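Q: Structure for this?
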Amino acid sequence: MTSPKTMTIAKAINESLRTSLETDPKVLVMGEDVGKLGGVFRVTDGLQKDFGEERVIDTPLAESGIVGTAIGLALRGYRPVVEIQFDGFVFPAYDQIVTQLAKMHARALGKVKLPVVIRIPYGGGIGAVEHHSESPEALFAHVPGLKVVSPATPSDAYWMMRQATECDDPVIFFEPKRRYWDKGEVDTAAVPAPLHRARIAREGTDLTLAAYGPMVKTCLEAAAAAEEEGHSLEVLDLRSMSPIDFDTLQASVEKTRRLVVVHEAPVFLGTGAEVAARITERCFYHLEAPVLRVGGFHAPYPPARLEEDYLPNLDRVLDAVDRALAF
Amino acid sequence: MAHLSPPSPAAAGPAKRSARPAKTPPEATGPGHTPPPGWHPRIDPAPLLPEPEPYRLLGTPAARDVDPALLRRLYEELVRGRRYNRQATALTQQGRLAVYPSSTGQEACQVAAALALRPQDWLFPSYRDTLAVVARGVDPVQALTLLRGDWHTGYDPRARHVAPLCTPLATQLPHAVGLAHAARLAGDDTVALALVGDGGTSEGDFHEALNFAAVWHAPVVFLIQNNGFAISVPLEKQTAAPSLAHKAVGYGMPGRLVDGNDAPAVHQVLSEAIERARTGGGPTLVEAVTYRIDAHTNADDATRYRDAVQVDQWRAHDPIDLLERELRDRDLIDDAELKAVAESAEALAARLREEMNADPVLDPMELFDHVYAEQTAQLREQAAQLRAELDAEEDR
Ligand SMILES: Cc1ncc(C[n+]2csc(CCOP(=O)(O)OP(=O)(O)O)c2C)c(N)n1
Ligand SMILES: [Mg+2]
């Protein structure tokens, strides 16, 4: 038995990929700069050295080609885990993902499986130039056939990546890049919760804050701040944007009677819209306030100097909390 | 194809590298044993083939045909460009720039690209091409706006006919083709010059752009700066082609191969291609063989993927040294002129330091100003939300 280790989210994903490469010869890692360099965030550091260039592949620079060839590899039983270098560069691959990856299983009436994982470092807060801070998860969650997840802790990063790699469906794996260096415990001998199960990150009684990825930490900070003002907030880490674990969410909201959904992506037609609509349906008679949403504005992601104004922060979350509590 | 000045390998017969034996048409043995109906060779590929080795001028007798004033102009811009790169990189270390992709080692391509264009032409740069943008006349401080974490472009693309620095690789290339085609539709003589890296040639947009350009016979020139790497990935993992310039042939346009560190050679090859485009000759693909002396950006650690020996080899083939040697050997520049060039470069660096030391003041409300031609009600609502947040912050 190995004892739990403290590591960063980036390292946890690295360890997870390493374990998958060790345990399943069909697992491949591919993408731009993932081999010799170990990825621009070093998430795949050392993997090519240990597993060779045939299993950890520095591909030509072409996202459509990366995902397209991953589909072909999957048709022959491989399990490619591909990296898209930054959120803003997934779009050349969008055609392959939407018209092929998402649909082929259904088109073939289940006869073929496409166990492809697409890793995408996403979100803002790192002071980058344009196209390096996007949150496009809703564009993928909207597509039937894709599973869309995002971990918020090192433990989830490790386990969710393991589960995504073992999953027979395509999984879009959004990695909260500004939290890559956050540390936490990872128990590689634990029994993990199912991939698409939401997690209560903090228990509370007055209001539920639902978030995923980079915003979970922000919500936990908001809950700590609210506690000082005498409000007990529950923080629910959705972990999966498709499918969404509405049962866990419903149970939480039936208890707290108020819900605020938080993400970095624009509020307009974001994950929060689906959550708000569904929870309103399911919990109509329990709700004391309308479900409120907190997120980015419906404007292009701004330059680094303005991202503090764009991104949801503690104040914007607490503002929504106050409004919901005052209802 | 008189413009393809150095003899292309076509003139010397088919390239030797071909692994297949030369094919002679088989004799027909019966009815139907003929080429498919209507088939005929569409064009002769031979004149499209690039030079067998990168075209050079410096150190060759042909250099004497180049206007000395152009050599001196190129030299001054190279020196200023290198100083600019060094200063910008230093500014990243002081937190004044978010990131800087240096073009040190590639200055000859940058400068030649800018100087080969006429005012009516358009330049389509990538993120690494700040020097070309500055050499074309965009203000050197404004040109750093994007990399400073300030607004995404910072200059008016129409003022100097310079498209925004482009980060998503190769996406600028079809734009250049469209703009060039518009010139044909409008009947003017504008040419578009688009820059892309070796890595960018793997993207679908590169191929689509070349195909459109050739099919439309658009007045556009593509310049690939082959600096050996796409971040950590060397050229051999990017392409199996004999050279990137060869890719032109498959689309039906000429490919040209040039020493990217030989500024007058790059200038000449680009000028010929641009002239050809301007006079209705269609597109050209130019591959300039060069090297990225610095890391990918200040955030990159190049020692992880390449060794110092290679870098040193390229330092010995430095674009500034090559041109300076020519100028000195032929007494085309004197010490006073060299000093003046150095001073001009220092003055540029000093201006960068000074102006970049002030924090730009951005109005957050501008976030909502240019999303659409006219602001929507929805955005006005969001702007009001941010206004309220900012006011609350001030009260706190
Ligand atoms: C579509 C897209 N994918 C990935 C990236 C990330 N990226 C930025 S630069 C770069 C390497 C580009 O290499 P190359 O085209 O040779 O240009 P160079 O940086 O050498 O000038 C990569 C992968 C990007 N900017 N756009
Ligand atoms: Mg390159």
